[in-house]
Amino acid sequence: MQFRLVLIFVFGLIALRANAQVDSLRVQEGMASFYGKKFHGKKTANGEVFSLDSLTAAHKRLPLGTWVRVINQKNKLSVVVRINDRLPIYSKRQIDISRAAAERIEMVQDGLAKVKIEALDLDELDRLIAYYQDRDSSPLRLRPYYRIIQMPQRELDLRLNEVLLPFSPDSR
């Protein structure tokens, strides 16, 4: 009985750690909207001309040029966008994505969607953590994580070809 409890405990810890690793890319959750036609052809905060067909987004705080994955919580569809514009600081939404991005996660009909915003990969998360090291990162969720180091597989040679002894019985 105790052995089973120990096994359940160990596997529970492994599952929690695996879940934390999967969730380590999450930066923020909240509401998303999408750019309307009136912004098409206008300049964005980084100087680019906005296109409804681009996969870009506006965010209040994320650095311009950051790549994020936006996941629609309703249907779990996701799209990768690049932050190239700013939302007003007083906006109730966390991100405003292009129409093309909104179509990919099927939120055009609803107009708004509850989303999860994730760093694209661990390298992007590293850049965000470094960027916010001396800055206020609230309300973003930037947690340190631990990368798993993959070691090359080596087989152990357990065969004993020759045993060397410091002395042998015949050497007297």
What descriptors fit this protein?
6 strands; six-stranded mixed beta barrel; 3 helices; 172 residues; elongated
Biggest sheet, in brief? 6 strands, mixed, barrel
Mean pLDDT: 81
Shape by Cα distribution: elongated
Q: How do the helices and strands follow one another from N- to C-terminus?
A: HEEEEEHEH
By DSSP, the count of extended strands is 6
Class derived from helix and strand content: alpha/beta
Going across the major beta sheet, what is the strand order?
1-5-2-4-3-6
- Low-pLDDT parts are 16-22
End-to-end span in angstroms?
58 Å
Number of helices: 3
Q: What portion of residues belong to β-strands?
A: 15-25%
Helix coverage percent:
10-25%
Topology:
Blueprint: H1 2-23, E1 26-34, E2 56-59, E3 67-72, E4 78-86, E5 95-97, H2 99-104, E6 113-119, H3 122-131
Structural commentary:
It is built from three helices and six strands, in the order αβββββαβα. With 172 residues, the chain is of the alpha/beta class. A six-stranded mixed β-barrel has the order 1-5-2-4-3-6. The longest helix has 22 residues. The protein is elongated. About 4% of the residues have low confidence.
